[in-house]
Amino acid sequence: MKKLLFASQFPLFIAFNFFVLTAVLELAINNSAPGKFNKATPRYNGTEEFDPSLGRLNSLKKLEGYCDSIYSSDYATKKSTHFEEVYPEIVVSAVKKRFYHGYSYFGLGNNFAAKMLEPLTGKNASAIVLPDEILKYPYGACSQQSIVVMDLLKKKGLLTREVGFQGKLSGHFSFETFYNGSWHFFDPNMEPDQAILDKYNRPGIAFLAANSPILISAYRHYSKEFVLDVFPHYHYGKPQAALAPWATLYQQVTRFLSYTLWIFFLMAFIWVRRKYRSLSSSKNYVRNSRVYLPQFQPGTSPTYHFGS
Asked: Is the pTM of this model over 0.85?
């Protein structure tokens, strides 16, 4: 036991120092490219509606303020314009310009623990699902862009549901929002032709999947084979359901651990150290089990002499 305690002090001390270093780097690096490990930074392809100036919208609150200002200045005075119809268009338009396509992941600079524990939890557990974290990057995947839009629309009281696609060759993620008695389809990532969709009163995905010429025309920037492989194979999420709840919990917990893991290893090191020293000290005192009592010898007492 004593040897085990002695040996365990060294890895605990090393782990303590390692996680202190990672916590410091979390604060110092914060979202820089070196924190992405083996994930290459996506590049803008030059064809999407990307506006780098909107990078200032780096939180959901700032995005909300931007969209609110557009609605207030352009639409609020028009009594014939309904908020439920207009506001989703504003948010989707802003998000299309705010991002270009590409996954953002947690790494050394923003959630080291999420990346470190990813092999134990499954593929892409470090792909960001927290809206405020997604908005720290200029790029976002289809699911990430939709999560940002849906989160803001739900905050405004609008009813939304996810729409997932899984074709034989590829998958996709988008959403619908409910107004005027029906569901309406939006896709901020793949950017279908808005004019075509508006011509048919922004229909739901069921209408588009059943009318392939309209679907192909709306997504004319993609091959016909790709469009017909992906979009007819759709499924709905539950309205107002939490978006990626397990991934959200995982990333919130690991974000906390990224800053505090060193505390747990420090406490473990102190406990082991004390236990080891306690065992070492007790061994020095317990030499044998014999107990010695003092023996009185005649004539040795300074106050009493036999026969005096």
From this structure: no
